[in-house]
Amino acid sequence: MAARIPLDPPRTLLFRAMSWYSNRTYGKVVDPVRAHAHHTGVLWSLARLELAVGRWKKLDPQLKALAVMTSAATVGCSWCMDFGYLENHRHGMDPRKLRDVPLWRESGVYTPLERDVMEYSEAMSLTPPEVGDEPAERLRTALGEAAFVELTTMVAVENMRSRTNSALALTSQGFKDRCEVDRPANR
Known about the structure:
By secondary structure, this protein is an all-alpha fold. The chain has helices at residues 13-26, 31-36, 40-53, 61-75, 78-90, 95-99, 112-125, 133-143, 145-167, 175-179.
């Protein structure tokens, strides 16, 4: 399926700056930038949001990654799963944990706390949300209030990303494939 909006937006100054950053960081311009660039105000607002979100540091980064990827898997955003694999692989996360996110209930690679985070993220990402008091209280107690609020908000942000990308029919850009290529030693 092709994206529901052309991925060749007007070449505004903001789009050119975002394209430069995306190329430098990811080796290509990510499709959400191309899609959002049709509305400069949306692109600018989302860029500021992502910069702010990147400064939140109360929640363990690996728990945050699992929460975000579980939300993306629950919503069904292949673009987000692909990109999440790249981002978290680059930060040294265990590839088995990344691969097993869609099957987290059957996988043996997660700790009890990681499972609680994934259960909470999945429950938040359903429509309507089905968050229970017991899992929420377990996480609030285990993480502390600041990290629990960050977790909850990260899942909400990922729901926005995943639902937007899915609605625009943005699909995988092959990031995961690049992570799994065996590289010869001493190249």
